[in-house]
Structures are given as C-alpha cells and as structure tokens.
Amino acid sequence: MNLHQLLKEVGKNDPIAQKRLFDLYSGSMLLVCRRYIKDSQDAEEMLLNGFFKFYSSINSFRYINEQALYSWIKKIMVNECLMFLRKKMAFVVIGDLPTEDHISNDDVLDKLNAEDIFRLVLELPTGYRTVFNLHAIEGWEHKEISKALGISEGTSKSQLNKARKLLQKNLSQQGLIYEQRKTN
Questions:
Q1: Which pLDDT does position 97 carry in this prediction?
Q2: 91 contacts 126 by C-beta, under 8 angstroms
Q3: Which of 137-163 are b and which e, b meaning 16 or more Cβ less than 10 Å from the residue's Cβ?
Q4: Distance CA 163, CA 128 (A)
Q5: Is pLDDT above 60 for 102?
Q6: pLDDT tens across 108-155, in order?
Q7: Which pTM was predicted?
Q8: Contact assessment for residue 6 and residue 21, using Cβ atoms and an 8 Å cutoff
Q9: Structural domains in the chain, sorted by start
Q10: How far is residue 182's CA from residue 49's CA, in Å, rounded to a whole number?
C-alpha cells in the first residue's frame, strides 16, 4: 500500500493504518520532540498527543508528497512541544549565564558524534534551547518565534545569541574532554 492510500485509510480511522503510519514516523518525530522537551517521558507524551492531533485533523490534509506529509506532522509535533512548554511555564527567558572566555577550536565538531551534539543542545536552558531549535533547526524567523512564544523579537535574537555562545563553550569543553579520553 502506498503512502497516499495509507493516509486515506488513516482518515477512515483504521487502527491498523494508524499504527503503520505511527511506526513510519514515530522515531523521527520523537527526536523532534526530544529537541524541545528534556524529559523523555514528557517527550513521548507530546509524540502521542501530536499523533492524536494529526489523526484528528487528517481529513484537512491534502496529500502532495511524502515531504509535505513529514513537514505537516513535524509542525504538529513542534506546536505540541511549544504548548507543553508554555503550559508548564518551562519556557523562561533567562539572562546571561556566566561564560568564561574559551579558545575556539574549529575541529571540535569533527571529534564529536551526532549524539554528543544532541545531548549538548538538550543541556541548554529551556529558553535558549527552544529559540535555538526554532531558528537554527526549524528555520523560523525571529518574528515567528516571538509570536509563538509570546516574547519580543529582540528577546528571541538575544536568546539565540546566548544559546550559540553557551553551545560553543560547551562544544569546546566537550571536545577537550573527548581528546583527554582518547589519549588516556
């Protein structure tokens, strides 16, 4: 069964089709949720809420291609995560965190794998992480971010800048730790 036909079956509330679609996209969508939600159980809950919302609104989706479907599901997941953060008041815009000057090492990223980088992004404070994900990963403009989060564009820009600085510092430190582990 092709994807377009599968979506038609999902639209008829076929539980087997819903399970198939969930199996196709749940892995990648859980990663999307985990970028925003630090706690894995909460991220899984947002994943399930997102799929429920997706199934509930499937008949308003017009299938064009797989990429459009992926984008639509991803948008639902991101919005679910943002609603969760606002509800839990976990999105708190914080001021400057103390950062020491650090030596920039351009090949730090070459030493780290994707899991290490993902973990470092997840360790960012919620406000930094949220704005960073929306701008750097999702491609949202600051105007969209400010509207979605109820903050000013200037605050969005500031949070992104601070997130980048802290991430750069943490990446540099992680690269040094990685080098020490490698030589021991």
A1: 47
A2: yes
A3: ebebebeebbebbebeeebbebbbebb
A4: 5
A5: no
A6: 555 667 787 788 888 899 889 999 999 998 999 999 999 988 889 999
A7: 0.77
A8: yes
A9: 3-87 (1.10.1740.10), 108-183 (1.10.10.10)
A10: 42
